[in-house]
C-alpha cells in the first residue's frame, strides 16, 4: 500500500497525463480510466452538467466488460438526470459535496437521495460502495460529477472507499475539472467551425460530425488491435483523430449555397466545384504547428479518396490547385490517390462518413436498415474502402450502431 505522500504524487502524475488530452470524449475516457486504476474501482461514470441537468456521458465497468470479452466494448446510452436531491449524482451536483456510500443496499433511509437499483437488475450487477465527487473549476462553476463504484482490495474483493480516498478524490476531481474546461473550450471552437459549415450545408450538423468522429475512433481502435499497435500510440492518435474527423467537411463553408442546397443531382461542373471542399478545407491548416494540424489537413483533403483510385483528385496542392509533380494525367490534372497512398485516418473517416450517410435520414433519402447498410459496406470493400479498415468496421458494428443512437439528428429527436 502506497503512503499518502506517494499517492498524492501519483495523482499529480496522472493529472499531467490527463492534461495532455484535448478532445472532450477521449478525455472523459482517460479521466475515468485513470481514476478507476488509482482508486481500484471496478466501475464508474462521469456526468457532465447540461443546463439544469446532468448528462450521463461516459461509463466503464470491468465486471461487465470481462463478460463481453476483450474484442467487444460495453455499450451504453446517454440520458439526463435533474440536479436535485433525488439521485446520488444529482445531490452531489446540487450541494457541491462528496458522498461516500459503503453499501448502496444498506443505506439508512434517512439520506435525502435514493439509490436506483434498476441498472443492477438489468445487468445482473451488484453495486456496493459508491464514491461520488463534484468536478468544480477555479471559478466555482460545476462542470460535472464523477462516480466511482465498488472499490476492490488486493484480492479483488469489493470493499468500501476509505476516508483518505475522499480527500484524494477531491484533489483528482479538481485537476480533472481544469482539463475538462480546456477540452470543452476546444470542442466549442470546433463546433463553431462545424456550425459555419452547417449554415451552408444543412446535412453538415453537429450530430453528424460527432457520429463520424466517434465511429472513426472505434474503427481505428479495432484496426490498431488487429495490427498490434502499442497502446500509448493508440491513446495519443485517437485524441487527434477524433478532433480532425469532426472537421472533415469544414471546407464546405467556401462552396456555393446553390450547389450545397440543390435538391437534385449535380451537373458535372457543379460536382467539380463540390470536390473543392476537400482542398479548401485543407487550406485552413496551412500552418502545421502540431500533429493535429497535420492530421486535420490530411483528413479534409483525402476523405473522399477511394481504395481503387477512383475518388477525388487527392494528388493536389491545396493552395495552387495544381497536381503534385509526377501525379498528373495527360492533361496535367491531379490524379486520385490509391491504396495506401491514402493516409490511414482518411481511409477510416471515409468508412465512418459513408456509414453515417447510409444510416441517417437525408433530404434525398430515408435511413437504410442495418442489413442493407452492412451489405453495401461489404460490397465496397476493395473498391471504395480499404479491406483491412472494413474488417475492423465489421468487428465493432454493435458499438457503431449505439453511437448513431447517441447522437440523433434534431429531426429524429423531437
Helix segment tally: 15
What does the overall shape look like? elongated
- The total strand number stands at 7
Rounded to the nearest angstrom, the radius of gyration is: 23 Å
CATH class of the largest domain: Mainly Alpha
Which class do the helix and strand fractions yield?
A: alpha+beta
β-strand percent reads 5-15%
Distance between the termini: 52 Å
What does the oligomeric state look like here? single chain
| Order of helix and strand elements from N to C terminus | HHEEHEHEHEEEHHHHHHHHHH
Q: Architecture of the largest domain, CATH level 2? A: Orthogonal Bundle
Summarize the structure in words.
A hairpin with a 5-residue loop joins strand 6 and strand 7. Helices cover 49% and strands 11% of the residues. Strands 1, 2, 3, 4, 5, 6 and 7 form a seven-stranded antiparallel sheet that branches. The longest helix is centred in the middle third of the chain and has 38 residues. The chain starts with a helix and ends in an 8-residue tail after the last helix. The protein is of the alpha+beta class and 414 residues long. It folds into two domains: 180 residues, GAF domain (Beta-Lactamase, 2-Layer Sandwich), CATH 3.30.450; 212 residues, Orthogonal Bundle (Hypothetical protein af1432). The protein has 15 helices and seven strands.
Summary of the model, kept short:
The protein has helices spanning 4-18, 24-39, 62-68, 88-95, 118-123, 163-200, 206-226, 231-246, 257-260, 268-283, 291-302, 344-359, 370-379, 387-394, 397-406, and strands spanning 41-50, 53-61, 80-82, 99-101, 130-136, 142-152, 158-159. It has 414 residues and is α+β, with helices and mostly antiparallel strands. The N and C termini lie far apart (52 Å).
Amino acid at each position: 500500500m502506497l503512503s499518502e505522500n506517494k499517492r498524492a504524487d501519483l495523482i499529480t502524475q496522472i493529472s499531467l497525463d490527463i492534461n495532455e488530452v484535448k478532445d472532450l470524449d477521449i478525455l472523459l475516457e482517460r479521466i475515468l480510466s485513470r481514476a478507476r486504476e488509482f482508486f481500484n474501482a471496478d466501475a464508474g461514470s462521469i456526468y457532465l452538467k447540461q443546463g439544469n441537468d446532468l448528462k450521463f456521458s461516459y461509463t466503464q465497468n470491468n465486471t461487465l466488460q470481462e463478460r463481453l470479452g476483450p474484442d467487444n466494448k460495453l455499450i451504453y446510452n446517454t440520458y439526463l438526470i435533474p440536479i436535485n436531491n433525488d439521485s446520488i449524482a444529482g445531490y452531489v451536483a446540487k450541494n457541491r459535496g462528496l458522498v461516500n456510500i459503503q453499501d448502496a443496499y444498506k443505506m439508512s433511509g434517512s439520506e435525502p437521495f435514493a439509490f436506483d437499483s434498476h441498472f443492477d437488475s438489468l445487468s445482473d450487477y451488484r453495486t456496493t460502495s459508491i464514491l461520488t465527487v463534484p468536478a468544480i473549476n477555479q471559478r466555482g462553476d460545476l462542470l460535472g460529477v464523477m462516480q466511482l463504484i465498488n472499490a476492490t482490495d488486493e484480492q479483488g474483493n469489493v470493499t468500501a472507499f476509505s476516508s483518505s480516498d475522499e480527500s484524494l478524490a477531491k484533489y483528482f476531481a479538481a485537476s480533472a475539472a481544469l482539463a475538462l474546461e480546456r477540452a470543452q473550450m476546444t470542442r466549442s471552437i470546433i463546433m463553431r467551425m462545424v456550425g459555419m459549415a452547417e449554415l451552408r450545408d444543412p446535412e453538415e450538423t453537429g450530430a453528424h460530425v460527432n457520429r463520424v468522429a466517434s465511429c472513426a475512433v472505434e474503427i481505428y481502435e479495432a484496426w490498431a488491435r488487429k495490427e498490434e499497435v502499442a497502446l500509448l500510440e493508440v491513446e495519443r492518435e485517437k485524441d487527434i483523430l477524433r478532433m480532425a474527423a469532426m472537421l472533415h467537411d469544414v471546407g464546405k463553408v467556401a462552396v456555393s449555397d446553390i450547389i450545397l442546397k440543390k435538391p437534385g443531382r449535380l451537373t458535372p461542373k457543379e460536382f467539380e466545384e463540390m470536390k473543392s471542399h476537400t482542398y479548401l478545407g485543407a487550406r485552413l491548416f496551412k500552418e502545421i504547428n502540431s500533429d493535429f494540424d497535420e492530421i486535420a489537413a490530411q483528413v479534409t483533403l483525402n476523405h473522399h479518396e477511394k481504395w481503387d483510385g477512383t475518388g477525388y483528385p487527392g494528388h493536389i496542392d491545396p493552395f495552387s490547385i495544381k497536381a503534385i509533380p509526377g501525379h498528373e494525367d495527360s492533361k496535367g490534372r491531379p490524379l486520385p490517390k490509391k491504396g495506401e497512398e491514402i493516409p490511414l485516418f482518411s481511409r477510416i473517416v471515409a468508412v465512418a462518413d459513408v456509414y453515417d450517410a447510409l444510416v441517417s435520414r437525408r433530404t434525398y433519402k430515408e435511413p437504410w436498415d442495418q442489413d442493407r447498410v452492412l451489405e453495401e459496406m461489404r460490397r465496397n470493400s476493395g473498391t471504395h474502402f480499404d479491406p483491412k479498415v472494413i474488417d475492423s468496421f465489421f468487428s465493432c458494428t454493435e458499438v457503431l450502431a449505439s453511437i448513431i443512437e447517441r447522437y440523433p439528428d434534431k429531426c429524429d429527436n423531437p
